[in-house]
Amino acid sequence: MANSLFSLLVLLSTIYSVTAQQNVTNSIRQRSSLTPTGNSSWLSPSGLFAFGFYPQGNNTYRVGIFIAGLPLNKTVVWTANRDDPPVSSNVTLQLTPDGRLILQHQSQDSTTDVVKLNQSISSASMLDSGNFVLYDSNQRMIWQSFEHPTDAILPGQILSRNQELYSSRSESDHSTGLFKLKMQSDSNLVQHPVDATDTPQHAYWYSGTATIDGVNGVNVTLNLDRDGHLYLLNNSVNILKNLTAGFSESRSLYLMRIDIDGIFRLYSFSLDN
Ligand SMILES: *[C@@H]1O[C@H](CO)[C@@H](O)[C@H](O)[C@H]1NC(C)=O
Ligand SMILES: *[C@@H]1O[C@H](CO)[C@@H](O)[C@H](O)[C@H]1NC(C)=O
Ligand SMILES: *[C@@H]1O[C@H](CO)[C@@H](O)[C@H](O)[C@H]1NC(C)=O
Ligand SMILES: *[C@@H]1O[C@H](CO)[C@@H](O)[C@H](O)[C@H]1NC(C)=O
Ligand SMILES: *[C@@H]1O[C@H](CO)[C@@H](O)[C@H](O)[C@H]1NC(C)=O
Ligand SMILES: *[C@@H]1O[C@H](CO)[C@@H](O)[C@H](O)[C@H]1NC(C)=O
Ligand SMILES: *[C@@H]1O[C@H](CO)[C@@H](O)[C@H](O)[C@H]1NC(C)=O
Ligand SMILES: *[C@@H]1O[C@H](CO)[C@@H](O)[C@H](O)[C@H]1NC(C)=O
Ligand SMILES: *[C@@H]1O[C@H](CO)[C@@H](O)[C@H](O)[C@H]1NC(C)=O
Question: Do you know which Pfam families this protein is assigned to (predicted)?
Fold first, then answer.
């Protein structure tokens, strides 16, 4: 595992048109609902991203965010409660009249929270950036998926101090897998196996940008721009290290993910068609 731990893979895919099972919605209101086999997702205004059910095999499903245009192996960028068991088709996701986002299990007559909040959710939006956001009754954002990454980040999303990405178990099972990528508070971006301690001898890759841990005023984040420029930024101003220089194709969507083999890769999807 010692070499080529960060690789760049350019994957060109065609984004297909929206399927009939999905409905474009700018604002998702209370009482809106989804089911795995009916209206299964809420689309972003352009139809690029969807929030809703995606299949997990054996007629089971998980709730997450995915690139909606890719038909079979939907490209999942976020998963809710990824280590909970997947659900059967007998389930309804609802933004309830009292402002909770829940899964209602018909066969067991029970509910689970998709996102657990103290505050009441007034509405939700699936944005074209791939960020799923929840609002209170004053239209203030009270939660966003961009602040709770699972195994991937999208342009505009940052991995901030002490945040981690965890690989998935397999291509089809998005529960927590074997590897993680952490933006350490000492400014080093580091990869470890999940079941090892966060010590340097267990790291199998690091960015080499460590500063003295706890030094005041240093706040390094991993950033991805729309052009695929991936870099470590100090205090939102100076670039500590470029991981990629960025690319010139303008009609592409970039996505960085720590894959099941523990390598983090930058993917590019063509937005033509
Ligand atoms: C999408 O939603 C709108 C408004 O809720 C509805 O009028 C329309 O029939 C829906 N379209 C589909 C394809 O479900
Ligand atoms: C999908 O939602 C629309 C309204 O938004 C509704 O008219 C339609 O019947 C729903 N389709 C299914 C399969 O539930
Ligand atoms: C589907 O379920 C069967 C029986 O429980 C199990 O043997 C099989 O491994 C499952 N397949 C997948 C892909 O989860
Ligand atoms: C999706 O599946 C196809 C064929 O099975 C494969 O060629 C392609 O690489 C897969 N895409 C992703 C993003 O995994
Ligand atoms: C769905 O619910 C119905 C009625 O409660 C039940 O008969 C059926 O076995 C359930 N199916 C699954 C897959 O749980
Ligand atoms: C929820 O409210 C309790 C009590 O007011 C507070 O201690 C807790 O931090 C809150 N949790 C979140 C996620 O805001
Ligand atoms: C990070 O930025 C702060 C000022 O915002 C500066 O004092 C510090 O030297 C910078 N650290 C590095 C490693 O660039
Ligand atoms: C670090 O910087 C990010 C933005 O660059 C900001 O969102 C975050 O609040 C900062 N964290 C601290 C502890 O200052
Ligand atoms: C990082 O890349 C940006 C944009 O490509 C460039 O402007 C900058 O000079 C680079 N910085 C370093 C430290 O290499």
Answer: B_lectin
Strand 152-153 and strand 101-105: the pairing is unpaired
DSSP string for residues in 158-175: EE-TT-EEEEESSSS--S
Q: Is 126 exposed, middle or buried (0-12, 13-18, 19+ CB in 10 A)?
A: buried
User: Which residue's alpha carbon is nearest to atom 3 within ligand 9?
Assistant: 245
What are the backbone angles phi and psi of residue 248, rounded to the nearest 5°? -95, -15
Q: Which residues contact 158 (CB under 8 A, 6 or more apart)?
A: 221, 222, 223, 224, 233
pLDDT per residue over 57-92, tens digit each? 889 999 999 998 765 456 899 999 999 999 999 999
Contact (Cβ atoms closer than 8 angstroms) between residue 49 and residue 68: yes
Ligand 4 atom 5, closest CA: 73
Tell me whether strands 49-57 and 75-79 are parallel, antiparallel or unpaired.
unpaired
Distance in angstroms (rounded) separating the CA atoms of residues 139 and 250: 32
Q: Ramachandran region of residue 55, left (φ > 0), alpha (ψ -120 to 50) or beta?
A: beta
Terminal Cα-to-Cα distance of the chain (whole angstroms)? 38
Assess whether the C-beta atom of 23 lies below 6 angstroms from ligand 2. yes
Structural domains in the chain, sorted by start:
25-147 (2.90.10.10), 149-270 (2.90.10.10)
> Which atom of ligand 9 approaches the CA of 229 most closely?
5
Query: Distance, CA 232 to ligand 7 centroid (Å)?
Result: 12
